[in-house]
């Protein structure tokens, strides 16, 4: 076992020992390194002022000529230092040339007056740096998506977008030094388990090592991207006890497509999962776009979203509607279960002591299948849902042979609407069937009232979503479908 966190920064390998178990990268940069360009705003992954970029080896690993570095923006405020292990760290202080010349992104922001008070600017620069290295010619929609996780109170975004359009794609120092950086990343590649903070933090390199660790420490907190767990520390000041960091397990992040099933490793990020699932299920792709900012999606995992058992996790209703299944592992024992059976009660799951979520299996679209999902929230971007719905029907000769209607925010767990499903089966999916299904939701749910919506609002809205879905299905095939996410509480189409 190793006891040091190792990562690449400014062309050198940095080695950290005795790292506190929940030390965030933001605090490390500002307090330990004195690099204060990375700002603390919300300290919960919402505002983007703390945005940094992580570089990881990509392509055909082990073949120098086929490898490159993938740069992705993440929030430093909820990312623990352990997550840096094996990666390259890039901050806003690292972009200027040796002679002080500005990076093309920085120069474009100057030229287009894209900064006023300047507090948010470093995070915006880093989000655009990741875009600069990721896409050759992003359009306005892609630029907006890349900047959705960066909040600015001054400029109104127009000059920032203009700067993004004008930043060019001339090779920068990071491109020129990629081979040297790759060599450094290979030199710190880990095949053993990292153990530090006095044995309170473990970072296994393989799923086999993870299985043994979870058996030995059944009460440990598993952390992947930290987009949920990070807030337990920064907002609730919780002591997490023993931590097992799974973000560096490559085989647990693997996504495969075989025999009509997409198998998504529990450590695969939402960004990676969306690249595979969005072309198959466009509504699911739109949901992932609203799931969180790009910084959040680059860290968050589907496995984590499911395993924490939240009743308002956005991915679960959609995946339940699609008939997703979970692969659970305890030591060498592997079992498989429908996703809807995983949630037992509020924040309670079917995981046994020493067991963890290993993968999510999502079937590819079947003949006659119709799918949609709907997120109802007060904001379009980065907001917790009042109601989340996932709907799937299988039709044969116009008759519903299978119905899967799942909701989040309506009960203590993500849950299927059994009575509503029964009202649809064996009938054409027409207006009468949709009205009957909507009317039965009161048998399936007794929603709560909270700060996001009242119980009556939730029940009425859930029924109206079924009617909306029916109306959309009745549209001519040449009609443009209203986006499933156009409506928000208090307004929208």
> Number of helical segments?
18
The name of the CATH superfamily of the largest domain reads Beta-grasp domain
Question: What is the topology, as strand order, of the major beta sheet?
Answer: 2-1-5-3-4
Radius of gyration: 23 Å
Q: What would the average pLDDT be, to the nearest integer?
A: 92
Q: How many angstroms does the end-to-end distance come to?
A: 56 Å
Helix percent band:
25-40%
Main beta sheet strand tally, sense and closure: 5 strands, mixed
Helix and strand layout, with pairings?
Elements lengths: L4 E5 L2 E5 L8 H8 L18 E9 L7 E9 L12 E3 L13 H8 L9 H14 L5 H8 L10 H9 L6 H4 L1 H10 L6 E3 L4 E3 L3 H10 L4 E3 L5 H6 L8 E3 L9 E4 L2 E5 L4 H8 L4 H10 L2 H6 L2 H6 L7 H7 L3 E6 L2 E6 L4 E3 L2 E2 L5 E9 L5 E8 L10 E10 L2 E10 L6 E2 L1 H7 L6 H9 L1 H4 L10 H20 L12 E2 L2 E2 L1
Parallel strand pairs: 1-5, 7-9, 8-9
Antiparallel strand pairs: 1-2, 3-4, 3-5, 6-7, 10-11, 11-16, 12-13, 12-16, 14-15, 17-18, 18-19, 19-20, 21-22
Description of the molecule:
This protein is α+β, with helices and mostly antiparallel strands and 493 residues long. The protein has 3 domains: 5-94 and 175-245, Ubiquitin-like (UB roll); 104-171, DNA polymerase, domain 1, CATH 1.10.150.120; 369-489, Enolase-like, domain 1. The protein is 31% helix and 23% strand. It contains 18 helices and 22 strands. The strands form 6 sheets. Strands 2-1-5-3-4 form a 5-stranded mixed sheet. A 5-stranded antiparallel sheet has the order 10-11-16-12-13. Helix 15 (418-424) runs antiparallel to helix 16 and helix 16 (431-439) packs antiparallel against helix 18 (455-474). The longest helix is centred in the last third of the chain and has 20 residues, at 455-474.
